[in-house]
Every structure is written in C-alpha cells, then in structure tokens.
Amino acid sequence: MRGGTIKSSSDATTTILKKQQTLNALHQTSFLIVISTSIVAFSPLPSLTRHLGSTVTAVTSPLTPQERAVKILSFLSAISAAIELFLSPLIGVWIDLKGRKRPSVLLYSLIAMANLGVVLYPSVGSICISRTVNVLIGGFLMIVANTVIADMFAKNDDQMGTVLGRQAASISLGFLSGSLLGGRLTELGERPAYGCAFLFSTLAALNASFRMVESVDLAKSALGSH
C-alpha cells in the first residue's frame, strides 16, 4: 500500500514537471513564431513593388507597381480569410486525431520552409506563397496553442487565467520585437528579412519537437494520478 502511494506521488511529480516543461516550450515557441511572422509582415509590400516594377508588364499596366502590389496583397488577405474559415474546423478535428505536438511541429516547419523559399528564390510567386502560409498557419497555431493550454489546465481552471495571460504576453512581446526588427531588415531587402524569419521559425519548430510533451498524454496522466 505504501509502495503504491510513493509510486503515485512520483508519477504525479513527473507529470507536473512535464507539464511545466511543455508550458514553457509553448510560450517560447509562440514568442519565436510571432517574431518570425512579424518580421515579414510588412516586407511583402516593398518587395512586391520592387519585383513588379522590374517586369515587362510594368510598362503597359495602368497601375503603378505599388498599386498592383497593394491589390495583390488585398486579394491574398481575402483568399486567406476564406480558406481559414473552411479549414479551421478541420484543423480542430486533425489535432484531436493526431494530438497536439506533431501538428505543431509540422505547422512551424511549413512556415520555415515558406520563408526559406523566398531566401532561395525571391520572386512575386514565392513572396505571395510565404505571405499566405504565414497568415494561414499563424491562425491555425492559435487553435493548437489554446487547445494545449485547455488540455493541461481544464481541471485547474483557477490557473487558466494566469497561463492565458502569460501566453498573451509572449505573443505581444514577439510581435513588438518582430515589428522593430522587421522594419530594420526590410530596408536591406527581402533576403535578410526572410532569412531571419526562417531562423526564428526553425528555432520554434526545433523547440516544439524536442521540448514539448504531448499534452493529451499529460492530461490522461493527471487524471490517472488523482
């Protein structure tokens, strides 16, 4: 009886430590990925304007390169919103079936690859793809992050507000840092900006891959220890 009590206490301690590790990893990856997306949030307009200005159609088009760039970005925003509207419920089903960790790592990796595409082949097409991927997956990652927090703190709702507040602070700090850094890097061209974004998004993917523990398993362990 005593041995069973000690084992139960040890399992509960291990679960708490893993939960804290996963929570810290979630805050860190959210911070890193928001820095990444914020760096390139304002890069598409000057980059597209520059590329469109160097094309043959720039001579015959009644619109200036900047006006065409704005039109393209507006179209991409509308398309991204429509796609997110239909895919968000499917993302929820996907993370219920596959867990939280593997989808998170995949989504972070897709952002990294989209940014790398612009570094390797800067063009109107690669910039548009990166813009769409960053906007779409940024929204999907919010779903995953909120689900991870719900998994770990659904039974401890007295801590939920504190955890959500820290998560919001991580996102805000990432946005502030990324916006300031992105303004500097955009002046140097798309390769430095997207290269830096690739670095941060890759760090986010690696952090999630090696430091996060599947929150569904943690929730089951927590229930089993009671």
From TrEMBL:
Pfam short name (any one): MFS_1
InterPro entries: MFS, MFS_dom, MFS_trans_sf
Record bears the keyword Nucleus: no
Domain Major facilitator superfamily (MFS) profile as annotated: residue spans: 22-226
Keywords for this protein: Membrane, Transmembrane, Transmembrane helix
Gene3D superfamilies tied to this protein: MFS general substrate transporter like domains
Any single Gene Ontology cellular-component annotation: membrane
Residue spans crossing the bilayer: 72-93, 105-124, 136-154
Membrane topology: Multi-pass membrane protein
Superkingdom of this protein's organism: Eukaryota
Gene Ontology molecular function: any one: transmembrane transporter activity
Localization: Membrane
Protein name: Transporter
Native source species: Thalassiosira pseudonana
